[in-house]
Design goal:
Chain lengths: 303, 303
Amino acid sequence: MIERVCVVGAGVIGSLFAGHLARVANVSCLVRREDHARALNETGLRVSGRHEFVGRVAAATDPGELEEPDLVLVCTKATGLEDAAGALAGHFPRATVMTTQNGLGAEEILRARGEWPIVSAVTFMSGTKHSDTHVEYILDTETWLGPYEDTPYNRVEEIAGLLARAELEVQALPDLRPAQWSKLIFNATVNGVAALTGLPHDVHFADPEHLGGLVEELMTEGKRVAGAAGVELRDDPWEMNVLATQRGSAHFPSMLEDVEAGRPTEVELINGALVRAAERAEVDAPLQSALYAMIRGREASYS
Amino acid sequence: MIERVCVVGAGVIGSLFAGHLARVANVSCLVRREDHARALNETGLRVSGRHEFVGRVAAATDPGELEEPDLVLVCTKATGLEDAAGALAGHFPRATVMTTQNGLGAEEILRARGEWPIVSAVTFMSGTKHSDTHVEYILDTETWLGPYEDTPYNRVEEIAGLLARAELEVQALPDLRPAQWSKLIFNATVNGVAALTGLPHDVHFADPEHLGGLVEELMTEGKRVAGAAGVELRDDPWEMNVLATQRGSAHFPSMLEDVEAGRPTEVELINGALVRAAERAEVDAPLQSALYAMIRGREASYS
């Protein structure tokens, strides 16, 4: 029975989880800034948009100040994961830890810091953070969960049940890798092309007269890597791309927001992970490698 | 004997040619803006940097106001070439016309508007335009000239002689295509990667741990296209790249300046020309095609 949840990182995704879960569980937030913790303790966490309510949370910058949770949701960006894993080391030995980062490799980074059972997740939710205590819930799309290593599947189902009670869209899967890889190939391509071109994820990405041909080739390369790595994809990334671009309002991928703000991107766990998987599986991925090299080039241009 | 030269377009390259040539010939400038013409007529054209002097020029926005020249140097950017060719149509029937645009295809655009003998040129000069009447001469690198169609070679040598007397570095070549293609492959790659990454042409472009691998593969593709098109390159683009990055001060390719200013780029005559040449020669050029698609994507992001 999950009674206490600790959400690590209260950006968009962390805030959406914490705000919703506060209605059905005892929620704490581990954040980096003292003023962020103070604001959350004082005013709670407001969710607007698809759902409207204010959730009460207990926030701190030190895990030692929080009650021992049954479940830890690690919701930092990939770029903050090493620090978050370091902060959790030695804490909450009875908790299950769930990763939500884009790309591949978040589980290994946490495993290096503790023996917690780990559940992997990918989420398609999106929102906008208006302040430290207010997040707008924009896309109420699904979060998918699956066991990592020998985490029992009923633990995964229990977490999925909790998220569903909190009115989030969720699916438990006995094997997450097919879903994780579908999103990996989608994200490596869409985030990468968006970051380099400056275009949000819009109709250009599916138009064969424009970027559609390139996007399809990048995804075909990704699918070849997945096949060589022994992963059968859950969803076809190209169909995900076509569907998403038909949604009407163009989505701004986080990697595009990062390069426009001159921030480090999640390139290593996304594009880097895909290119390294291609190398391990000994398949060529020249276009994905080009994207990876150029995004790192873009990061090098900040200084 | 070349006594009168008309320079069309007084950006960096046009100003460098006009300023230098004014010392050894009667120079006129055809520009787009009335205030630019007036300023040039009033104060002349100042060259600073490698050379220091002020050249007298006669400027106008209408070719009908200029004396008939023996030689027309078309120095607009590729994006202004259609308009310039249209303005020249029906004028200066006894003149030879020289193109200086990057990439491939400038000659065809002019031929469609008149029967002038055409000389092709590629130039490696660079400078900075400080005002409408002041250009700084930064790199005193060569300009290469060659005949287009049946233009007699002695006409090319005569122009080269004039440029040399004006103290510009110049070389006449019986066949310019090997040089034009070397620069095409160099520019398609270096301008394209710079525009997408935001990096000036610096050491990253030759570093195998960074963008060097991608740059070399892009150039290898370009060389395959040249070979299939029957062109033997004058200089190896990869060696040009390594040499240029060893120069010390990083160069800002014009396509990078264009995308940062939100201006149309020269992508069609450079990357577009290379990709279309690959299609005609029936060779694959997936990386160059990716660059071409993403630069057009970047242009689409302006609006």
